[in-house]
Design brief:
Order of helices and strands: EHEHEHEHEHHHHH
Number of strands: 5
CATH class of the largest domain: Alpha Beta
Distance between the termini: 38 Å
Largest sheet: 5 strands, parallel
Oligomer: single chain
Strand order of the largest sheet: 2-3-4-1-5
C-alpha cells in the first residue's frame, strides 16, 4: 500500500508525513519501521524493507524519504538520483500491492510523476503552499538555518530544544538530511560543494550506525551538531 505525501509546501509535507508515521506506530506498536533515504535506496534494500513479508515476518512501515527531488543542479549525486527513480518506477506495482505500508515522501514532486504515483497510491496527501504563506507551522526553520550557516552552537541548541519539545530524533535527522541535500543542490557560502556532499553522507552513516545498535540517535545528533 502506497501513501503519497507531496506538494510545494516542503515543511508541511515533511511534518505531516512524520506525524502520520508517529500515529501509525502508536496505533500499532509492533509495526516494524524503517526510513530509507535516496542514498540508501537500492534494489536489495527496497525489496528487504518494503516488499518482504510472510508468515514469520512483521508487517512493515517504510518511509522512502525524498527519492526524487523535482529540480537539482548537476552533481556527482546524479547517478544516485537516477538509480533511485528507476528502482521505484520498476517496483511501483509491487509496492502498491504490498501488505506493508509504504510512505513516499516527495516534496515538490513534478506534476507528471505525481500523477503516476497518485494513481498507484491508496491515499495521497498533497500540501501546496499559497503564495502568501510563509514558513509552514511545524517546520523547524531555526534548526535548518543553524545548519545552513554552520553554527554548531545554534544547531546544538535547536536540536535540544526540539528534543525537549517532544520532536522525534528520526524526524530531526530527516529534516537535517533534507537540508544537507538542499545545500548540495543550491550551493552555500558556508558549505563548499564537497563539504555539503560529505555532510549528507555523514548523516546517512550516523543513522545507519544508530540502527545497528550504536549510540542513541538523539545523542548522535547532539554529537553531530558539535562537529559541524
Amino acid at each position: 500500500m502506497i501513501y503519497l505525501f507531496y506538494g510545494s509546501d516542503v515543511g508541511k509535507v515533511r511534518t505531516k508525513a512524520f506525524d502520520w508515521v508517529a500515529k501509525a506506530r502508536a496505533k500499532e506498536p509492533n509495526l516494524e519501521y524503517v526510513r530509507l533515504a535516496r542514498e540508501e535506496l537500492t534494489v536489495p534494500t527496497l525489496e528487504d524493507a518494503a516488499l518482504s513479508g510472510g508468515l514469520f515476518v512483521k508487517r512493515l512501515l517504510v518511509l522512502l524519504d525524498d527519492p526524487f527531488p523535482s529540480a537539482r543542479a548537476k552533481s556527482d549525486d546524479e547517478d544516485v538520483e537516477e538509480t533511485a527513480i528507476g528502482i521505484i518506477e520498476e517496483h511501483i506495482d509491487a509496492l502498491a500491492a504490498s501488505d506493508n505500508a509504504i510512505i513516499i515522501l516527495a516534496p515538490k514532486l513534478a506534476a507528471a510523476k505525481a500523477k503516476k504515483l497518485a494513481a498507484k497510491a491508496k491515499v495521497e496527501y498533497k500540501f501546496d503552499k499559497p503564495a502568501t504563506q510563509e514558513v509552514a507551522r511545524g517546520f523547524n526553520g531555526n534548526l535548518v538555518n543553524a545548519l545552513a550557516v554552520r553554527s554548531r552552537e545554534k544547531l546544538w541548541l535547536e536540536i535540544n530544544r526540539a528534543l525537549i519539545a517532544g520532536d522525534a530524533p528520526e524526524m530531526l535527522h530527516g529534516l537535517l538530511h533534507w537540508k544537507a541535500r538542499d545545500l548540495m543542490e543550491k550551493g552555500s557560502r558556508a558549505w563548499k560543494p564537497q563539504e555539503s556532499r560529505h555532510l549528507s553522507l555523514t548523516l546517512i552513516e550516523l543513522l545507519q550506525n544508530s540502527r545497528r545498535g550504536g549510540l542513541d540517535l538523539a545523542l548522535s545528533l547532539e554529537r553531530f551538531a558539535l562537529s559541524v
